[in-house]
Every structure is written in structure tokens, then in C-alpha cells.
What we know:
By secondary structure, the chain is of the alpha+beta class. It folds into 2 domains: 30-216, no CATH class; 235-348, CATH 2.40.50.140. 29% of the residues lie in helices and 32% in strands. The protein is built from 5 helices and 13 strands. It has helices at 59-80, 89-97, 157-179, 185-225, 297-303; strands at 30-39, 42-43, 47-52, 103-104, 115-126, 132-142, 148-155, 235-239, 248-261, 267-275, 290-296, 311-323, 332-344. The strands form 2 sheets. Strands 1, 2, 3, 4, 5, 6 and 7 form a 7-stranded mixed sheet that branches. The chain has a 5-stranded mixed beta barrel with strand order 9-10-11-13-12. The longest helix is centred in the middle third of the chain and has 41 residues, at 185-225. The N and C termini lie far apart (59 Å). Residues 1-25 are annotated as: Disordered.
Amino acid sequence: xxxxxxxxxxxxxxxxxxxxxxxxxxxxxxxxxxxxxxxxxxxxxxxxxxxxxxxxxxxxxxxxxxxxxxxxxxxxxxxxxxxxxxxxxxxxxxxxxxxxxxxxxxxxxxxxxxxxxxxxxxxxxxxxxxxxxxxxxxxxxxxxxxxxxxxxxxxxxxxxxxxxxxxxxxxxxxxxxxxxxxxxxxxxxxxxxxxxxxxxxxxxxxxxxxxxxxxxxxxxxxxxxxxxxxxxxxxxxxxxxxxxxxxxxxxxxxxxxxxxxxxxxxxxxxxxxxxxxxxxxxxxxxxxxxxxxxxxxxxxxxxxxxxxxxxxxxxxxxxxxxxxxxxxxxxxxxxxxxxxxxxxxxxxxxxxx
Length: 353
């Protein structure tokens, strides 16, 4: 049987490749930024901007710029102490344009094959922590035989800053690998640019931790040392850790468990958790040895059949209920763990079971 004939590519003289095997032309790839800025006066029209995907259009690079804008609004709020520090469409556009060259993008990005990375950002006025309200969705895709797609979400300034640092660190590692043994000055220059952004992201991460933890500690102290005394027969609830993006995690075994239906028809499951945390929680609050836990909704129905003694892992938030039984009695408090996620502790399971 004769050997197959190798055809030549007329352009480069090499063996002709199937179209799916040829390197994809990335010169027209775009990074797309879509941003909604909700001002106190109302919702503004979204900003739709684009930039060449190479080299500026990466999630890490643009998330660092966004994190820097959030930190600038936080610093401005600390200086002015009024609503003038709230994000605005014009302010966000001016800040981002000072760092990258953007062009207007009036097209639907989901039907544009040139868009390989899309950043959806929602910004709002400063919240109680002094940071702008923010949520981010990162969408990445690459067509072709070995294409990929991924999606990441972050909500809250702290989560966005953390994601920015993770993304730029990963990009820096990738570029360092590409720069090893190469004489391409473009790769080396790009690696050095990303290294500057990586260091900036590390500083922003420290600033975010410092400012957010300080604000959280202040609110927690105020809640514990200056509690609101409720009227007789009423209750007042205080979330012991006021940071919305942070949850406590406990491991232990279920003690007694009870499921009930409230007057509003909501199903609630209550159970005691004999945890292994010790006297204090990770956030520093004193807790009982058997922690009162609460589940609501569909999770409450599913957990109602769990037997006593089942080892579990629970994630959620500690809530302190301050109540006044009567006028003749002092205010009392009850700590409850508001469970958001409940699962079996596999580390304590018998592998043979």
C-alpha cells in the first residue's frame, strides 16, 4: 500500500494542517467591560468598553484596576465622610481610562466571537463599611479544538480584591514560565508589567484587610458593649460578625434535633452541635460547648432526617438574640448559629461504611 502523500501549505511550505489544528489568529480578540453604576439618584446606563485582549485584556489585569478604584473611593470616603465619595459613571470611566486605552463597544458581547474575556461589574453607593457596593462576574472563553470556558463571581469589595490578587498572581506565574529561556523582549516586558500589578494587588489586599477588619471590629464591639435594650417581650438580633462575605465553620456531632413550622409556614430545623472549636469561635466570640444551630427552607427539610450523633460540618454566621422577658428581669442573650451550608464530616467517617 503506497504511503500517503504529504501536501504542502502554499504559504509556508510546511505540511498542510486541518483548520481545527492550525493556531488560531488572536490579533482581533477583544476584552469587554460592562459596568452598571447605581448612583443615589438612580441607575445610570451601563458603560460598554472594549480593549485589545493582548496584552491588556486579561481578568487579572483589569480586576487590579477595579480594585484600585474601589480603594480610591474608600480613601475618599474616609477624608470627606459624605456621599461625594460614591462611585459615579463619569468617575469610574475617568479612572479606568487613565490606566488603559478603551474604546466604546455598542454590540451584544455574547454574539461576538472576538470577545474572549468579559467583565460584568455592578457598582453602588458606599455601604456601612465605607467601601462601594460591588459585584463582579468574569466570563472567559476561547473557541477552537482545545478551547475552554470559565466563570467566576465575587460580591463585596473584599472578595473582589482577593479575586484580583489571585488572578494577577496566576497570570504572573504563567508569564514567568513563558519568559524562561526566551529572547522575546515582548514577553519579558509583559512579565515585568504584570509584576508591578502583582505588587500593587498585594498592597491593595493588605489595605482591604486592614480597613475592613477595623470596621468590622468596631461594629462588633459596638454591638456587644452598647447593645440595644429591647422592650419587654421583644427581641433584638445582632450578627456578631458584620462582614457579609465571611462565615464561621464548625465541625462536630448532632445532639438533639427538632423541626417545626412557623406561623408564616416557614420550616425551621433546630439542633444542638457538640463542636470541636473550644470556648471561643474563630472570630473571638465566646460560645457554648453545645451550639444552638438553625436551618430554614429546603435545607431544613433535608436536615430533619439526620440522626443524633451524625458528624457534620456547618458553615454560617453567629447571631446573638438579646431579649427582655419582662420588666422585672434583666436583658438576656442567646447565641444561635445561622447555618448556611451543612454537610457530612467525611474525615470522621469509617472508610468501610
